Structure to design on (98 residues):
């Protein structure tokens, strides 16, 4: 199936909404607060060291999907998820809301 730009944007926005609302979809044990997603010090340079914590950029399908959609959508992908660190900050967004 080939998706239109509009369909890709709907999927991206829906995934971002799910993450921002702490759905747990696509996260190790559905736990967005898991230490593998700690935004502090979780740079792309160190991301692969988090495999032993239960997740990494290579293993997380949600991260890979968001990266791919972000690349295809360009400027219309908001917020942009371009790095593991971006992903980890987004994963912890719900903590900032409360």
């Amino acid at each position: 199936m080939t998706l239109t730009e509009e369909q890709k944007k709907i999927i991206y926005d829906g995934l971002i909404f799910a993450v921002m609302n702490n759905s747990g979809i696509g996260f190790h044990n559905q736990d967005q607060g898991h230490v593998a997603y700690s935004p502090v010090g979780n740079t792309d340079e160190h991301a692969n060291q988090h495999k032993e914590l239960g997740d990494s950029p290579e293993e997380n399908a949600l991260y890979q999907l968001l990266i791919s959609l972000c690349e295809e959508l360009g400027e219309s992908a908001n917020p942009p998820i371009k790095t593991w660190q971006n992903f980890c900050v987004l994963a912890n967004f719900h903590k900032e809301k409360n």
Summary: The chain has one domain: 5-97. The chain is about 45% helix and 0% strand. Helices lie at 5-20, 44-47, 61-73, 84-91, 93-97.
